[in-house]
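debug: dumping io for the single-chain case to check the tokenizer round-trip. Nothing else runs in this session.
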Amino acid sequence: MLAEPLSAAVSPLFRIDGRPVEWVVAPGYVPYEEAVAEMEARVALIAAGEAPERVWLLEHPPLYTAGVSARDEDLIDAGRLPVHRTGRGGQFTYHGPGQRVAYVMLDLNHRGKDVRGFVRGLEQWLIGALGEFGVEADVREGRVGVWVERPPVQAPLGRRMTEGPGWSREAKIAAIGVKVRKWVSFHGVSLNVKPDLDHFGGIVPCGISEHGVTSLLDLGVTATMEEADAALKASFVRVFGPT
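debug: decoded output
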């Protein structure tokens, strides 16, 4: 299902007072517990009106996170990587080097108090960022996240090969898992730039086993993390307003 373009008249995601969002890029790999503690503290300050909204871009060391809907049977290889139980929405996902995680701390009190519209905005943000690289992406009915259709794998002598273990034409390239407290959002999105996709094999990503996971690199786009960040920032401004 192709996501329809946002309309400011329908989904007023720009902040009412026009105040810019703080845009922060963390160096190195941020431990997951440290990131959650920082988010919790910042969300409390935003809710109290004592700090500006923030988008925090980072990378984690290799790990799995389990959202509130995670099923134990979807953790296929429990000993492979550390597992963190978290309060965000969604099920199991992988975070690690080469994946851009964006924690989004926005005050929806100033953005229409529309959680559905906010999630739709996150989808449009990611779709727009991927479009900066010529990647056509959209959403799927009944599935969370942002999806692409991969070209067929080319077998020898030019024959098309579209089947194989773990391969599917439709693949998720970005995940969404958020929480809202006092109308302030936290947790956020992850975009697969060039992570080790093999690590997704230790879980059933987001509870969906019939479709695969991909990345910009897997699609043939050799973007740097800095280029991915620039695309994310350009698209964010179009959907949520100035930073």
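debug: round-trip ok. The chain has three helices and 13 strands.
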